[in-house]
Amino acid sequence: MKISDNFIASNEGSFFLIAGPCVIESEEQVMETAHKLSKITDRHEIDLIFKSSFDKANRSSISSYRGPGMERGLEILQQVKDEYDLPVITDFHVPEQAARVAEVVDVLQVPAFLSRQTDMLTAAGKTGLPIHVKKGQFLSADGMDNVINKIESTGNEQIMLCERGEMFGYNNLVVDMRNLDIMKELDKPVVFDTTHSVQRPGARGDSSGGDRRFAPTLARAALSAGVAGIFAEVHPNPPSAKCDAATQLPLNEFESLVNQWKAIDETVKNGK
């Protein structure tokens, strides 16, 4: 699947990264993170799609920080594109936002909780952009065939599927690595979301918990299975993050992980 002239997303090709802060907290935070991520991925010759959200519409509490809103958020993402020549991705939350968001982003993301919503999927498809669909925590991997069919009903076949864990009782997720192979059989690039997969939704009552220690382990396992890309939320100072503080990866430690992940990816794919 073509992301740009020099960037093809494929389960067989070199892995790419979708990375950035969970939510836009400030222009400075986003630009600092984009700058450092672009340098890291340039050094390791890895394609990067920069990610951050203008709104987190599914926060646990009514009082939780959600983001700067769509218009200001899109302005900041446009700055990332202009300054660092990076493709950008963000999520949208109601069908009416799709066309406006598509004016800025290079890839449009459908959130996991909304991945069955027909109006969301068809609105995304109608933009003509590549679509990144987070598999719902409540969906089976083979059930993503219906998701694909809904988007493709618009004539848009540019679809990536993302594994981000399954609900395991209350407030916990587990990852069934078999899902990666099942979704690859649907003939779409598969991305593994390594930071949301270690989340514990709503575990802190008014916010989600989780344990970032296990995110690198799961990423290694997914790359060993041969995925197209890794999704990782990265923050300059995760404990201070306004969203997903327990699961975002520290920006200053990210390069060592990327170096390791690239080695695994090359070993697996060059050995085929």
TrEMBL record:
Leading EC class: transferase
Reactions that this protein is recorded to catalyse: D-arabinose 5-phosphate + phosphoenolpyruvate + H2O = 3-deoxy-alpha-D-manno-2-octulosonate-8-phosphate + phosphate
Gene3D superfamilies: Aldolase class I (3.20.20.70)
Cell compartment(s), UniProt: Cytoplasm
One Gene Ontology cellular component: cytoplasm
Keywords: Cytoplasm, Transferase
Top-rank taxon, per record: Archaea
EC number: 2.5.1.55
Pfam families: DAHP_synth_1
Domain DAHP synthetase I/KDSA: 8-269
InterPro entries (UniProt xref): Aldolase_TIM, DAHP1/KDSA, KDO8P_synthase
Gene Ontology MF terms: 3-deoxy-8-phosphooctulonate synthase activity
Listed SUPFAM superfamilies: Aldolase
UniProt xrefs under HAMAP family: KDO8P_synth (MF_00056)
Similarity-based family: Belongs to the KdsA family.
Protein name (database record): 3-deoxy-8-phosphooctulonate synthase
Species this protein is from: Halobaculum roseum
Taxonomic classification: Archaea, Methanobacteriati, Methanobacteriota, Stenosarchaea group, Halobacteria
